[in-house]
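Morning!

This is the sequence you dropped in the shared folder:
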Amino acid sequence: MNPGDAATPAEPVSARGAAGADEPAPGDVRSGVWWGELSPAHRVAADLDGYLGDPMDEESGPFSYKAIVEAEERDELPAGAVDAVRSWGFPKYLVPAGLGGRLTTLEDLFFVTRGISRRSVTVAVMYGSGLLAVNPVWLWGDGWQRRTVADGVLNGDLACFGVSEADHGSDVMASESEAEVQGDELLLTGTKWPVGNATRGRFVTTYAKTGPRDFSLILVDKQELEPDMWTALPPVRTVGLRGHDLSGVMFVGARVPAERVIGRRGSGLVQTLKTLQITRTAIAALSVGTMDAVVRIGMRYSRERTLYGADIYNIPVIRDHLVKTHLDLLIAECVAIPVTRSLTVAPGRLSLWSSIVKYFVPVLGEEVVASIGTVLAARGYLREGVAHGVFQKLQRDHAIASIFEGTTHVNLANVAGQLPYLIEPPEETGHEDELLADLFCWTRTPPTWEPDGRMLQLTNEGRDEIGQRFEQISEELLSAANAHAAPGVAAELKDLMSSIGGLRAKVDQGIRASEGDTGSVAALARAKRYCELHAMMSCALTWLHNRHAFGGAFADGQWLVLCLQRLLQRAQPDTVLSEEFLPSLEAAMFRVSDERRWFSLLSLAEDE
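The structure's back. Tokens below.
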């Protein structure tokens, strides 16, 4: 069964889960990339995608676009959607394997979240909010906390992260909620709003003062509280995510055992900042899933809609939009997947890389959605018709991706703050090549996650193996292209890497000339360019580390030239795509669209 083929949601797929599945991976892996050679995350995703069925098929159950849009009109989730996801076993991918779940790497969770998001961002956000809440327990919790939360989540309980307050937003140092120490208890008082899953969630990971300047994370189990100790606030009306429980919770003298503090008392701020590194990375799956959905809708519409005697794909501007959005999706894969792997390969790098992903991929997603809106024109504005009118819902729902876990500007500020320490690369350790292979080689399985908050850092300590090794990576790239890529690719790459090198030099010059400036508009602009350069190197490294296994149009490297040209257009708008390299890309686009499979770099792998 290919992902996208219809399946009956009642089928007990959860019994199979990620193990032993023999379906093709998303993207239909062929040739030398045998099914067993890809990391298990692809297998997990194929299983879930087949189980949920083709969303275009109105008979495919609660995850059909028809059911999703009809429920949206009632501000509800589709009837049976949550039960279907639970039946498959999705909650198990929120719980580490060592605690009875199936979460072994963040890559696993990324792929299954992508699969849900291409149908319903709302359902994906419901579980994403839960992930944010439970991660501090996995990272710093004691044995009782871990077991209790793991058992609850595996049984279908939801969790929420009570950090935000109406008057303070992201200014967590201004939080007014307090947990007064009274013997062996904490007396918790305060209001958290807005919070995802605040009403439906059993567990509330609550950020509160435990001293004059100390903040702690406290595990609150509503089942332990007296009814008069807490109140759920009314649902918040939102533009998108209708049916999601976005509300709040008010504690009034709630008595909580003192041992419910997660980790060391007073470490709540550091714990929150570290926890966000994981969920910032995972949020990219919302964007990639949405991109896959809207590009698929745009492709199908462009080939079914006839104007002026031919389908509208043949209109140059429509073709341009669809080709570029497809490239953007491939770029997003190159950027996001390695960072999901870094949780277990290089967790100390997440402070920088998670903010790059959180800024870049959702922004790319917003641009893709807007571009497909141009393709659909008036049809994209309707709540019916093309794909049952789901486009407008996807458009509204995806807008949250740039807001969650720090807005676009917050994440750019995080990047800008580290740039002065990155322009002088530290002495190499000798392990850089192996680290990059672990991050970028899709046929390698990342190590299993053994949660330990000490492994996460608040800064990268001046290291960025992806950005700082430009010269070495460029040399390796051009050497490989000269020997193995399709004709003309090496020459194009030589010119592209020269242009990219020029952009890097300008960023370095700007940092050196503005010493100490990490908060101005100009500093954020430099951070934005650094994220784009990171994306360029990620594309190059993805080709370098997978060309041997994938073969075919992937190994030819034409897609890499196109992706780098597409990225360069952000800095140099007059950059044009190499028209002679487009046929292989378009052939994959058409094939994947016709066969209703994921849009992915894997679709460029060599045919059998």
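Headline: Confidence is low (pLDDT under 50) at residues 1-25, 27-36.

More detail when I'm at my desk.
O.
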